[in-house]
Amino acid sequence: MEIKNNIEAIENRIRELIGVIRRVDIEYKEAFSAFCELRVMERDLTKAINSNDATDKSGIYVKYEEMKEAINHVLKNGVCSMKEATDDLSILCDGCIINLDRAKHIADEDSTCISKKYGALLVGSPRYEFGKDHKSYKDGNVVVCGIGANGAPKSRKPCTELDECQHVVKKIPRGTRYEECRSIHAEQRAIINFIHNYYKTAIFHTIPPIDNYDCIMYLYGYDANTKEVIPNYSPCTLCKRMILDKENNNLNILFICVARKALTGSIYPIFIDPKSWIINDDTLTDNVGY
After folding, report:
1. How does DSSP classify residue 27?
2. CA nearest 216: which of 100, 86, 82?
3. CA pair distance 186, 246, nearest whole angstrom
4. Which CATH architecture has domain 96-284?
5. CB 182 within 8 Å of CB 150
6. Buried/exposed 261-278: b ≥16 CB within 10 Å, e otherwise
7. Is residue 124 within 8 Å of 213, Cβ to Cβ?
8. CA 20 to 30 Å from 131, out of 137, 158, 213, 282?
9. Model confidence over 28-69: pLDDT tens digits?
10. Is 265 left (phi over 0), alpha (psi -120 to 50) or beta?
11. Can you give the pTM of this predicted structure?
């Protein structure tokens, strides 16, 4: 397991996450992201303790106890504005991880990029409110309203057939010179797919038209060669504009849920608030990468 050679880094990360959770001024999304990371690390450490992979069980067990302390703190005092019980937070966390796994499946099946594979999933319901509707994951009251994966337009040959990536061939830095990439991004395709589904159902009156349909976008990206989750990625500057353009696409994306890999090996969600892109407009700076 990755835990064997990562004990010191895991211990430091646990301390950092405990500090995040105990802050009283922390925002919901940051607190919940920390909770989810601790949650998956707890599970990974539990597996290590109960297996023969742990060469230093006593050391791992100490870290596990520190994890339990953090989770118990959440249970007793709540995290920031989150007043739900730990079980309900866990249900919401597990639901996010399930949807990230669905986004990965979309990337696996539909992405035609030979460098980086991304999958996007739009999930919501007319009543969905982030952090206050964990029961949706209990009763199945969530709606998949758009999906997308990165790749060339369907009318053109995919990069998998050409067996070359323009970004690699031209040595284009990540997050720059989008016009030279052959792909439509996963986020863009998911929004286009939502618009198609929205107007199709509105025309046939299968659902009543809704202004600014509330949902969450789930993103999963991984390296096509190593299969490793891409670290520290987020929507590019072009995708940010489409996500923010809710007046024209009738889509109010409340949060972007992005896959990250914990030091112990499992995937957990972090959350990005699109409103932060309005305050910090990267089109007015030189920082337009991702």
Report:
1. -
2. 100
3. 17
4. 3-Layer(aba) Sandwich (3.40)
5. no
6. bbbbebbbbbbbbbeebe
7. yes
8. 282
9. 788 888 888 988 988 887 887 777 555 555 666 676 777 777
10. left
11. 0.83
